[in-house]
Amino acid sequence: MKTRLTRWVMLGVLLISSLSMYAQFNIIPLPSSIKENGASFTLNGQTKIYYEKGLKQQAERLYAALSPATGFDFQISDQQKAAKNIIVLKIGKGGAPLAKTDALNKESYKLSVKNDVITIEGNSPAGVFYGTQTLLQMLPAEIYNKQLQRKTVWKIKGAEIADAPSYEWRGMMLDVARYFFGKHYVLKLIDMMAMYKMNVLHFHLTDDAGWRLEIKKYPKLTSVGAWRGEGAERTGGYYTQEDIKEIVAYATARNVDVIPEIEVPAHALASIAAYPDLCCTGEQYTVQTQHSISKEIYCVGKESTFDFLADVFKETFALFPSKYIHIGGDEAQYDRWKTCPHCQKRKKELGVQTEKEMQVYFNQRIQKMVKGYGKTIVGWDEIIEDGLKDKAVGMIWHDQKKAFKASEAGHYSVMALTGYCYFDVAESNIPGEVKAATWLQPISLEKAYQLNPMLEGLDPKYRPQILGAEATLWSDQFIHGTVLQEIAAINEDRSEKYFEYLTFPRMSALAEVCWTPHEKQAWPDFEKRIRTHYKRYDNAGYGYRVPLPKLTGNEKGANGFTIKLESDVQGAEIRYTTDGTRANVYSPVYTQAVTVPKLSDFSAITVVNRNQYSLPLYFPEKYDKFKKYGQLVAEWKPSSVKGKDFGTFEINATGKINENGEYVLSFWYTEGHSRLEIKSVELYKNGVKIAEDVHDGYTGSSQENNQYKFKVDAYETGAAFTIKAVVRGDVDNDSNGAVFIKKQ
Question: Which are the contacts of 526, defined by CB distance < 8 A and separation ≥ 6?
């Protein structure tokens, strides 16, 4: 037993040691194998780039990446004439031995950095391209800058790297249907993805709130379906077919597969607004201006619906060479089908019992339709039902069991799980956090890194059917109001900055989850490497969320709490306060541990520059989130006020009522399951009732009418104020809450 334990300890030490070595390179995603060789290579004006036949595009892309910041006009050639100070791109048997499938082998590479020669050898042009992306990460962060960096020495540490991805699907979904992002931003996102070896752009082109793809046979799809609102409130846009060709060519050069999504049968209101006959009622609808899931869906009973979709797919496939087509398939409401004579006739002809079975029929028709083009359908996990005749890809977002069902039925899966991959959710619930989706809990950087596409409990034999993972950038928030809209007059690109804030650094974490062997993934090591990447984002012009200072200690001693911090951003400062106020960019610079009497006195932020800083690290008091309701005047538990009948709950408000005016008393529940019922509130001054508010209210797992108002006209200094609330609590004693008072 001792020998076995010693062996495990030694293995742990070796793993930590190897990860520390990897961290010296700070490459994300972490390569399969890195070995230092003691050499170094320095780029200069005489460095030459040589490439083998078929790799001219990769050589030109490398030149375009290296030249702006270095200022060097690198000579590129397919004829090698020098033996030193050269970068060589070649096709060979590059990559790590773990690459098993053709798709993974295709993307593998070897990178050798020696004193005089850098060699990038890939199994294909894609592998060579990924080798160049690793090379860029081995250079100083300024290499990503588009301006000349005169004082930088372009030195690269010598190493032998063999690398290959773990999963072939490493994706990001961009929702341009609910909010239209122009072509230039789509190209920028592709660059952001390529930097981290992400290779699938899932293009969410159609939804209830917009149709974004030009279809020449149906011009109203864009003249009507691409716009919403009237007059000055009219917003929208679409991609011409020439735009799409440019996007696809740009992506292909960076090994990114662009997969279009044409939603069926639901999320189709924009196209129905353009062509009303596509729906069951035939009525004229308008493109929605506020987010909701429309009950208007494509009519499954009309053959004209499938004729329309056949035409749309024909033009779509002429633009997108991907072997996949995403058909959505989620959140269909069947109300219209249930009352539509065409749909009910179809239901009877098919001999099915439910409308859900009719959606399976719909999917079958689409699958057969696109098969003639050599396409495989992809859909949200709702499409994984019995009846699909050919293999499909289920994008697992809310029902993990569908991955098991898909695998057993021979289908493929991509993990886009809500708890890890929905990047439209904020990273925290810290006050001041960006406006984002709230129907899910925050997804921190560490949480995103915890995703394992190979779900626990899934039979290992199904591993080849798990294609990878994908994060989603939904733009629902843009039609929940106008908070996120640009101000066109000053062209501030607020929407783009917002999406980048949500994307980085979480996309870097997802990239490693999808690329690096799972056994080599370690959060502490990733956390060290990501610290150096914020400077790369800055130089590349990418926005990101600045992480809070990292708390490494808050030990309690005789004089209070000693707080120790470190920065999670290389080169950034930490600034702090100790007086209970929130830190700002002008607060003192943190240089060593700080001792405060109480934790709530302390606050700190990470400061990259005067315009770029983190949310505050602070220690909230118990009722911090209720501060907007005023001062705490009492705490309640059902046990203290329980009983069959209502009783009186007395609250001392002396000192809290300190002048004439109108006051609001709020009863708030904080935890548990029990409820507090309130009948009335009376205010006494020196034992004499001076005001009351009578109405039924309660607070529990929800609250209703939980605020009571009264007016003070004859305040006297030194007077005693007492509040008597008539309340009743549940018998269970698993809840508690608090009462707050605020002057209006």
Answer: 28, 30, 449, 509, 512
Nearest to 62 by CA among 81, 82, 84, 90: 90
Query: C-alpha distances in angstroms, 474 versus 179, 190, 262, 424?
Result: 9, 17, 15, 6
In sign, the C-alpha dihedral spanning 342, 344, 345, 347 is positive
pLDDT at 303: 98
Angstrom distance (rounded) from CA 229 to CA 207? 16
Strand partners, 504: none
438-441 — which CB contacts under 8 Å span 24+ positions?
Answer: none
Count of CB atoms within 10 A of residue 571's CB? 12
The reply to whether omega before 505 is within 30° of 0 (cis) is yes
For the segment 727-735, the average pLDDT, to the nearest whole number, is 73
pTM: 0.86
- Nearest in space to 449 (alpha carbons), one of 421, 416, 415: 421
Rounded-to-integer distance, Cα 484 and Cα 547, Å: 22
Are 455 and 406 in contact by the 8 Å Cβ rule? The answer is no
**pLDDT band, residue 5 (cuts 50/70/90):** very low
Report the pLDDT value the prediction gives residue 641, as an integer from 0 to 100. 66
pLDDT of 7 > 60? The answer is no
The vertex-179 CA angle with 176 and 181, nearest 5°, equals: 60
Q: Which of 512, 359, 381 is nearest to 449 (CA)?
A: 512
**Is the pLDDT confidence value at 74 over 80?**
yes
**Contacts with 299 (C-beta within 8 Å, 6 or more apart), sequence order:** 278, 279, 280, 305, 336, 337, 340, 342, 343
Scan for tokens 């520059």, then name that residue. Answer: 609
pLDDT given for residue 480 in this prediction: 82
CA pair distance 261, 4, nearest whole angstrom: 53
H-helix segments, 224-383: 241-252, 269-274, 303-319, 335-339, 341-350, 355-371
For residue range 570-627, what is the model confidence (pLDDT) as tens digits?
A: 999 999 999 999 999 999 999 999 999 999 999 999 999 999 999 999 998 888 889 8
- The string over 605-641, giving b where at least 16 C-beta atoms fall within 10 Å of a residue's C-beta and e elsewhere, is bbbbeeebbbbbbbbeeebeebeebbbbbbebbbeeb
Instruction: With CA atoms as reference, report the closest residue to 255 among 515, 540, 532, 503.
Output: 515
Do the Cβ atoms of 614 and 546 come closer than 8 Å?
Answer: yes
Q: Are strands 324-328 and 594-596 parallel, antiparallel or unpaired?
A: unpaired
